[in-house]
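Hey there, shall we discuss this one?
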Amino acid sequence: MSSVGFYVTGETYTGKHGLSLKINGIDHGFNDNAYHRAIVIHGADYVSQSFVDQHGRLGRSQGCPALPIAKTSQIIQLIKDRSCIFINGPEPKYESPYLKLAPALAKFEVELEKTQDNI
């Protein structure tokens, strides 16, 4: 289960799951520790209809957003290097300054500057 909220994508690397993408959570109290926990976007064989058919659910990635293997490279190449992504889920207490346009634009600009050194 990935932490909800907004993330800024970073650089790619090749790890134990092949091509992977570093991400930096920018929602304080929800995902702001993702970078230090090594939460990354990567491909996984358990993200497939055949896995769901066999097990009745998708697999688990210890918090990393996982992609279907066949689409991993294309998706990562498209969103790498400072894209904004949003992960939604059943978190009833989720609040974010990024959910309202004017404050989001101002805060996002500040956060991008702060996270530039981390990514």
Summary: Residues 101-115 form the longest helix (15 residues). Residues 5-115 form a domain with the L,D-transpeptidase catalytic domain-like fold (CATH 2.40.440). Strands lie at 5-15, 18-25, 40-44, 66-68, 84-87. The chain has one domain: 5-115.
